[in-house]
Amino acid sequence: MPRKLTPDLPLFGVVVTLVCVGVVMVYSASAIVAADRFHDPFFFLKKQLFWAVLGLGCLWAGMLLDYRNLERLVIPLLVLSFGQSINNTRRWFHVGPVSFQPVELAKFSLVLYLASFLTRRQEVIGRFTEGLLPLLLVAGSMAGLTLLQPDLGNSLALVILTLGLAYMAGARVQHMAAIAGAALPVVVALVALKPYRWRRMVAFMNPWDDPQGSGFQIIQSFLALGSGGWLGVGLGDSKQKLFYLPEPYTDFIFAIIGEELGLLGATVIVALFALLIWRGLRVGLRAPDAFSAYLGLGLTIMLATQTVVNLGVVTGALPTKGLPLPFISFGGSALLMTMFSAGVLLNISQHARAA
Question: Which residues does the chain have with pLDDT short of 70?
C-alpha cells in the first residue's frame, strides 16, 4: 500500500497562526491611521484579509503541485523576473487594481535557479570559477537591478540567500570570505553616496543625535517596545501607533506587538518564527532528492533572512531596511509569495525521508 502523503503539520500550524496574528495586528496598528486618511478604520484590514484569503489559495496551490515541475520553470521565471526589474525601475508595478513588487518574484526565482544549479553541479561547488562564480553572477545581476529600484535591503538579502545556500551545498568559506571582503567597500560606497542611506546609518549608530529627524522612527520603536513591559498595555491600546511611530502596520509592526502584547507576546512570536525556521530546515535536510533539498533549504533561508533583518531593525540591532516581517506585516505581494513558498515547503515535507 502506498504511503499516505501528509504535510508537516507543525509547519502548517505555524504559518496559519502567523497569518492570523498578522491580520489582527494589522487592524490594531492601522485602524486610527486608516480612519484619519481614508475615513474608514477597516481600510487596511479589508485589504489584508483579501490578501490573506488569496494567500491561503497560494499555500494550497504550493502544496498540491508537483514540486519537481518547478525545475522546468527556472528559465521562464528568471526571464520574467529580469524583464520586470528592467522595465519597472520602481519598487512596484500595477496590473489593474493589484500592485506587486517585482523583487518578491525575483527572490523565489533565484531560489529555484540556485536549487537547479546546485543539483546539476553540486560536485564543483567547491571550485570558485565553475561553482560559486556562476551563482554570484546571476544573484549579482538580480541584486543590481533591485538596487536600481532603489532597494538596497532586498539587494543584500538576495546576496545573503545565495551565499547561505552555497555554503550549505559545500562552497568554500575562504571563497565567500574573499567575496564579502571585496563587496564591503562597495556597500559602504552605496550607503555613503545616498544621503538618506547615510542618515539611516548615522541614526543606527546613535539615533538620539537627531531625535526629530533620522533617529525619530527607531526611537519611537524603542519607546513602543519599552512601554509594553512584561504583558503589554493591551491589544488595541498602543500609544505609539497614534501618529508617533511611522507606518506602524508595515515594517515596524513588531514594535506594536511588543507594546500591546508585551515581552511575553513578542517572545511567543519570535518562538513561532524559530519553529518555522527549524521545521523548514528539517524539511530540506530530509528531502528525498537533491533538488527538493536545496529548494527547501533555500526557501527557509529566504524566510529566515527577512525575519532576522526585520526584527534586527525594529530592535535597533541593524540599520533601517525596508524588509517586512513575513506573514505579519501589511502587504500583498510579500504575503502571497511567502505563503506560496510555505506551500512548497509543505509539499516537499510530504515526501520527506523517514527519520
Answer: 1-5, 82-100, 353-355
